[in-house]
Structure formats: C-alpha cells, structure tokens
Amino acid sequence: MTSWLFLATESELIKHTKLTLQINDQYIGLYHLDNRYYAVEDACPHAQNFFLLSQGKVVNETVQCPFHNALFHIPSGQCLRQPGRDLIKYEIRVSAGEIHGYL
Ligand code: FES
After folding, report:
1. Residues with C-beta less than 6 Å from any ligand 1 atom
2. Tell me, what's the pLDDT at 53?
3. Looking at residue 16, what is its pLDDT?
4. What's the gap between Cα 11 and its chain centre?
5. Whose CA is nearest to atom 4 of ligand 1?
6. pLDDT (average), residues 18-22
7. Number of domains in the chain
8. Residue 1: which pLDDT band, with cuts at 50, 70 and 90?
9. Which end of the chain, N or C, is less packed with Cβ atoms under 10 Å?
10. Closest to 52 measured CA to CA, from 60, 38, 41
11. Residue to probe by mutation, ligand 1, list 40, 67, 81, 87, most atoms within 8 Å of CB
12. For residue 38, what are the domain limits?
C-alpha cells in the first residue's frame, strides 16, 4: 500500500547532496539537484538489486553505479547505460521544511 511518508528534512539534504534511506523493506536514494528533490529506488537493478546506487558518483543529473558502471538519469529514473531497466521514481512533496515521498 502506498502513502505519503516522511523522508528527511530540507536541512538534512543541502544542495548537491544525497541520502540513502531504508523505509520498510525498500532502499530509496534521495537527491537534491539544482533546487529540486528526487527520490528513486536505490537498489541497482543489476546484480539482483544488491548494490546501492546512492553510493555511486553523481554527475549533473546522473548517478553511476559504483560496481559495474550502470548509469541512470535521476529525475526520470531512465537507464542510460546497462543493465536496461529504469529505476522506480517516487513522487516528492515538500512542506514546512519536510520532504515526503509517495511510497
Ligand atoms: S550492480 Fe550496478 S551495474 Fe552491476
């Protein structure tokens, strides 16, 4: 069942930073890029979802998996280079300094 859940405060996520979150059984990568927040699934679709993308390098609007270099566009979740599946992207809402995601 999906619902709006608290992810972080804005003060925890200054510009050009990221957080790795575990909410229930899901890993979520929360990114602050150019005045917008994005939440995408954090387990890399390659290698049975074992590695966390938020541990990877962020360049512009992309994150690169540190293990086999899959590349994903954070705002859309689109897979730009292997393994071929896009990331699940979560809707974000910001209110009173709190970031919430629809998970
Ligand atoms: S585990 Fe991410 S590309 Fe292989």
Report:
1. 44, 46-47, 51, 65, 67-68, 70
2. 94
3. 82
4. 17
5. 68
6. 95
7. 1
8. confident
9. N
10. 41
11. 67
12. 4-102
Per-residue pLDDT reduced to its tens digit, 25-62: 889 999 999 889 999 999 999 976 678 999 999 999 99
* Angle at the Cα of 57 from the Cα atoms of 59 and 28, rounded to 5 degrees: 105
- Mean of the per-residue pLDDT values of the chain: 93
CATH number, domain containing residue 48? 2.102.10.10
Pocket test for ligand 1, best of 40, 42, 46, 55 (most atoms within 8 A of CB): 46
- pLDDT score of 5 more than 90: yes
Residue-level pLDDT at 49: 64
Q: What's the 14 CA to ligand 1 centre distance in angstroms?
A: 27
Residues constituting the chain: 103
User: 73 CA to middle of ligand 1, Å?
Assistant: 15
Phi, psi at 39, each rounded to 5°: -125, 125
